[in-house]
């Protein structure tokens, strides 16, 4: 915020930092051979992000306003990566080409967001102009100290180490606690590793930065899919991703709902927030009822 960045770009940077526990937990589980847990952490955390960052935040503060043009840009990038990931999970797309296309799409999105290349900016001009001149960026910053910037690297390192230890302990304790891979990954670890994202979202919501909040939610999910699902699918094989087919179906449905509500209402009110949270609870209840 000190640098006068657009709200949507602030949301992307926030997502980069807050995604560390989700990505490290998922990669640790995949590397240990617990593929259902690893994929579950990624897809479950994406579902939790939508429910907590958008739904719960709207309930807490009474609603969040989201500017339409940055939302269209964020959603276009997020949905592109989600559809590519769904193709890999469903077995219709090989991981390597899907990853290559996803990197290109996300790279174009970041360039359009920053407005650095004239050719790309011309394509996204109506959207990028709105993002670059977002009046929300003129809100007063919460702090005038650079100390938090220098604390970021050790903080992220601590979060990653803590996530690795948490996953190791959870995998050892799961058999004695009779926890299924789905419950452990898609619900418990997914929720715990998403708490930093929730903290960031509540800060944005309380300070009236709805556009940054929406960007943080969509970009957090995109980064999870890119770094935690598509990259491991290329390294470990497509079977690593296909264990999450049912979770991916829920994620597609909840993402469509979470994008449609602010597009139609120019934000997420308490009723919309409650609907998003209820959809997530239905996902959990359905999984438990099915004995997953």
Short description:
The chain has a single domain (7-137, 148-289), classed as Up-down Bundle (A middle domain of Talin 1), CATH 1.20.1420.
Q: What labels describe this entry?
A:
292 residues; 2% strand; mainly alpha; A middle domain of Talin 1; two-stranded antiparallel ribbon
Q: Can you offer a commentary on this structure?
A:
It is built from 14 helices and 2 strands; from the N terminus they run H-H-H-E-H-H-H-H-H-H-H-H-H-H-E-H. With 292 residues, it is mostly helical. The protein has a single domain (7-137, 148-289), classed as NCX, central ion-binding region (A middle domain of Talin 1, Up-down Bundle). It has a two-stranded antiparallel sheet with strand order 1-2. The radius of gyration is 18 Å and the shape is globular. 50% of the residues are buried.
